[in-house]
């Protein structure tokens, strides 16, 4: 099915507005690298938090969410819901520290926290690891989602989709940097929410509201057992699924506790510490609750519109990630289809512009300016940043060309970053962590996440024992994904603790400089004794109280809305009431414990 004239008019209007914003902010972003990458450190909390949430609403998220519902049921989405706990850790334990650091990238903090050759090596490696390797994989699955979407709704092949979409995203990202990113992200968030809620409303109206849809799904042939379960139950999930769920809830949230680099970039760009805390709290709610449920409703509806069985479209049977664009194609009328194409274009651009800007900040600030050309003008570095944006887009398009599954990309990133979770958290709160500990954790995580490939290369050179290969096959089987991530986390944590025991601590002057600048809490007594600087953080008890109330707020809302939309309105109302009360207390606590001043 092709779009009608009115659909294309809607898409064209949206594209024109986006380009106008980006080009209009080009002059402001071109004044300095700080303006280009952190918007002159002047963002209010609502704009910074919405920008982060808009980045989460990438083209991959609705497709992968609907596919998880078709494969496992609603609870399959804990594959990314668990990150809300990490975001709340960021809110109460790390947002203030990031803003006080006053850096352009999270890699830059390495040479403030550590010293010597090991810090230089780690900063360069981290910039390449985060800005190229991880970033290219993330942008690759976002592009892959757009390819699948465009193939279903527009009939475009991969080459045409990548050329058009990447070209459009490049125009205003190259021109306007973070200023263009955050302003257009606000537009994209509103457009994305409007489109996804419209589709969810059409689905609910078609099947008689939440109770009618829930009753129909319970009787639907081929629907997963417990399709409406919000958490896996012993009756409907295997023991391995239950174990994987516990791994997510109890351990893996730590990997997102410090925040991804693009999240940290938004916090660097806020006006003060209070704005950074409120931005991350708003992001936790908007990204986890507001964005999620419209996609899940569409996924549940797809079980009824496209029931499993002999008549199922072969393309959908082979790739459940096509369910979401097929729902748009078959359920939405002319005009609204154009709105959804604009919505997906918005989602694509909001993620691509963020990752292009963020990745380029590593390449310029932490590689080019740090190791190649140290004495260039601000205009020179802005020009270099724009070149880096183009290069990253080309690299990401190549990665997308090689990818097949969005969900597999999500899991690979979880494994790739699991090993550094604890050391990244403790670098702020324990003076004894050193650069070699981070290097060991990062290297161990890369090796273990890519163990299957490394064993294949080794086997090609030297015959390996059959028993070793058999163990590796079981360890790297898809059903072991989340258990494997926890093994990587535990193994790498033990590795870097051993490295700390056999290496020297950072020099006193390095630790003293960091402590004066960031004023962290935690285990800094020897350093605090030398500097005489008191921690600027609130007491640990209040931070943990805020975290607990925040978790009740976000997860109470998530489950409350879920109950309302799956035919359990009574329980949903109770959960939402508790959630809202916790939300009020969370906001007051976060506001009270954070100074309303710009850090030096």
Please characterize this protein's 3D structure.
The protein is mainly α. It has helices spanning 5-24, 26-29, 33-38, 45-56, 60-71, 78-81, 83-101, 110-113, 116-153, 158-206, 209-219, 239-250, 261-268, 273-290, 292-305, 314-318, 323-331, 336-372, 378-402, 406-418, 421-426, 435-449, 451-461, 466-475, 481-502, 508-518, 525-531, 540-565, 569-592. The longest helix has 49 residues, at 158-206. The radius of gyration is 24 Å and the shape is globular. The model has no long low-confidence stretch (mean pLDDT 83).
In summary, what is this structure?
75% of the residues lie in helices and 0% in strands. With 600 residues, the chain is an all-alpha fold.
Helix-strand topology string: HHHHHHHHHHHHHHHHHHHHHHHHHHHHH
SS strand fraction: under 5%
Mean pLDDT: 83
Q: Give the low-pLDDT segments.
A: none
The major pleated sheet works out as: none
| Dominant shape | globular
Total beta strand runs: 0
Helix proportion:
over 70%
Distance between the termini: 57 Å
Helix and strand composition category: mainly alpha
Report the radius of gyration as a whole number of Å.
24 Å
Total number of helices: 29
